[in-house]
Amino acid sequence: MAEHIAARGLGYRYRQGWVFRHLDFRLAAGELIAILGPNGCGKSTLLSVLSGSRPPIEGELARQGRIALVPQSLAPALPFTGLEMVLLGRAHAVSLFAAPGPADYAIAHTALAQLEAEHLAERSFDVMSGGERQLVLIARALASESPVLLLDEPTAALDWHHQAHVLALLRQLADTGLAVAFTTHAPQHALDFADRVLLMAAPDRQEFGVPEAVLGEDALSALYRLPVKRLQLPDASASTAIPVFRDYLHRKATPAP
Amino acid sequence: MMPMQPVDRPHAVCADLRVLCGNVHKNGEVASQPNPENPFERQLGFIGPWLLAGAALVAALLSLAVGRYSVPVDTVALILLAPLIDLSPSWSETESQVVWAVRVPRTLLAAIVGAGLALAGAALQGVFRNPLADPQILGVSSGAALGGVFGILLVGTGWPSMVGAFAGGLAALAAVFWLAGGNHSGVGKGGTVMLVLAGLVVGAVGAAGIALAKYAADPDNQLPAIVFWLLGSLAAADAERLWVAVPPILLSAVLIIGLRFHLSALAVGEEDARRLGVPVRTVRLLTLGAAGLATAAAVAACGVVGWVGLVVPHLVRLAFGADHRWFFISTALAGAAYLILVDIVARTAVAAEIPLGALTALLGAPIFAVLLRRLRGDAHG
Predict the structure, then answer these.
(1) What pTM was estimated for this model as a whole?
(2) Which of A43, A69, A79 sits opposite B1 (nearest CB)?
């Protein structure tokens, strides 16, 4: 298996302080990796560093192959149709003063078809729902024919059905040989779909490993500062993780230590 | 995770422009809004350039025919064909003279300046990621005018005003880009406001400089030349002015139309575009240079003619969509047709000729006002 991203002791900081340090991460072909962490822990920054948009401030980062990043949201300043947006994925193959050729259009259409989203080709990106945009942006990444796919909260705006749809798709893409990593706020996404998980617990503390091992009750409770229970599902084939919001309610009533 | 505001607002702005498009459509003022659900309407993109080329041709024929000395359109056609095929003249010498010596240069100049300004507007809108960018609003026209005035003051009319206008236009562009925060100017917090304010500042500096230059100019020779030139007119169109305008605007059009795909790609934002493999810096520099060149050439040839770069790309987007394959060529053709038509009005509406710049402002400013009001309403809602 070709290793596309290998990071050791990675660190990045803004003026206010370190976003993360001593971070180890590996992503190989055929793998699907989930990245979990609370709001503002630097998941997007990490993807940005891994994709090469920001150089790391410390540590080693080896990357191999073109990386396509699917942003959480995108607000084009001028109107685009779905197809025009997907075509932008071909930008790296279009030389200056040229425009995408028939082959590029064919690739863009294939990418949309792969996501069962051909009906979005002629739709205006502005008026699409969050889920439709997500599909178009993933299609754009596929159209770039990159071996590595990084996705920033691809399920953020989606209902449960569409979450399942996108995650199953990511699983499929990984199974066909792509290296895929995505950030999420749902531990179940990691438990049900991912090969490995990166838990960004604190700026200088991360866990990286198999979901079942990394996502214990204690780790998740600490991560989200909220009691989290791991439950075995009735059919005993899988377990899930759920937050116990009620406990937080009682804790809220007493003054914080 | 990331703060939502700066990401969401410009999109809302876009959506609002869509709403605006819809309204215009409902009022029936514009032939059709690109309705992406309807494949037939999407096809309009393909035929857009042909329709607009036809419109520009018709406008040009009309422009050759009407005026204080009117020549029938069929006679105009015959006069134009005369050098190509052998025809026994059924027209008077005066008619031929009016068409060839006066109206052909004027119409050509209107077409090339209109195309150049419209393309410059479309290009700036792509680079600044803001649908309100336009050479006039960004103060580039003022900067070019100031440079041109200095050219006239220090050397004389003709090529010095052209060189001065180009330098002034580029300096103004650089200043606006720097003031408005460069690549962050188009979207995000106060993007439109910053852009308009930066244009205001640069335009004010240009206007002040021009006032000083007028004060310093020789009142007998230079001052009338400067004042008349600044008013913006095609009345003095002749071969020399065509030479000033045509080569730079053609070069600029080749650059902008050549960059059509990469220029469109800039609209998704610098970081995203760069990740996709767009050479953002190169595209931006080439585009700004091309827009500056077209604006400077237009200003040098016929003074400050504003708002064309705002109005025309908008109308093209409303009517035919923004597909990079057709958008820029359509914009150029529509700009040509638009300025030819406005010039016809300028010289036929009343007994005396109305300055062209005044007329384009009269048409452009209300459209700008409507857009601005829509954007503002959105920011509050």
Answers:
(1) 0.84
(2) A43
